[in-house]
Fold each of these.
Amino acid sequence: MRDDESSAPCPSRSGARGPIYLFALKWAAVSMGLMVAAALLGVQPASAHGRLGAAEGRCRLFIGPDIMNFTGYTPDASKSEFCEDIPATGRMIMVLDDEQPELRDMKIEIRIVKDVGSEEKENENLDAVTVAYREPRLYRTGTVNFEHDFPEPGYFVGIVTVIGDHGERWVSRFPFSVGKTFMRTLPVYILLTLGVFALFVIYLRHRKLAPVAPVKPLAPPEDPEPHDPAATPAE
């Protein structure tokens, strides 16, 4: 081998990585980070849906220092219960059960408004964006039944206000959708798909750049020793 050949540097695998590989690697890292963040936020009781969420195996509404159990039904569409987003349009029945007896001595107000993007915009003309309302009243039994008909799909905000005789005023807000459950989860599916695609590109790139072990040629079989007929004993 010549000296110039032995001293020539070997091509680096890192230098052979193109921009597509680097982009896929970065996107995979970002996707994994976003998925982990989404998973961590999903365990909080007040994540994307405000103060309404699943906790301890039950759907709960956190309002002030107290908790109300939430149950939703769409009797005309399905017998299944829902916790946050309403899966279909039509008649909706919402049931709130007090966990603390003190709520039975406080007035409860319920309002559903269109989701206009922010609470400030909502308060500019509250009556115009209100789609359902029930004035404050006492519920001595501890159970609140609220029914409303949603003729069209859309995005809304539920507002439950508890008012006490001593100036207490607790407000719980929870965004929800009607007939748009798939649209809520669509960004998650897109993120997962892009993450899997990025990992696949990285796999193909590693497979292409992986060194291939040289195949050793098989040695030819040795010729058998010549047979000497004279060495064969006579019968």
Note: The longest helix spans residues 181-209.
Amino acid sequence: MRGVVFLHAFPYNPRMWEEEVGYFRGRLPVLAPHYLGLSLSEAAEKVLGEMDEAGLEEAVFVGLSMGGYLIFELWRKAPERVLGLVLADTRAGADTEEGRKNRYALRERVLAEGVTFLPEALLPSHLGKATQKAKPQVWERAKALILEARPQEVAQSLLALAERPDSTPLLPGMRRPALVLVGEEDTLTPPEEAKALAKALPDARMLILPEAGHLSNLENPKAFRTALLGFLAELF
């Protein structure tokens, strides 16, 4: 059996995919695992285990940000389970030294203070200018999702992100249909980075989603879903 597996961003949870899961449920087998707090290797094992339980032999993996990093880990472990991949607002490269230091510092603060400060710390870079200006409901939803996270899980995921390997060498060998999506206002993994990612993959197409930042499925759900539907139509 084939299906779609949605992989959430940091420090969110599968509820960020509620609209997508609701739309596809009944049309295709759908999974949206929760793996905040796990290493990428542990997260990949959990995803594969949930696929086994659901009878999914292959899937199109839809990963946003950290979810994209998890797609690369899944490819390392079980490329035969990958029917196609959607890499949204993500990158193949490892963190820079500065990026790692920032994650370690954020980790220490989360362990000391909890997660109440996180929305104000993260959302200005997670959401695009158009969203911040005109869609307060998206800000509130993202904020609520962040506040659902447990501090220990956030801290563990920050370690996993900081220490993840460079996946760039994998790209030429990832011979599966791929869709690269990026918000036009994404400053964390900007369109230029997405273009380089798409260029390095053997069978990729790319779309820039208007009026969206790093959380493109929440900021412009219609454009995100339209792009996803077109891609899935090629594979199912």
Note: The chain has eleven helices and six strands.
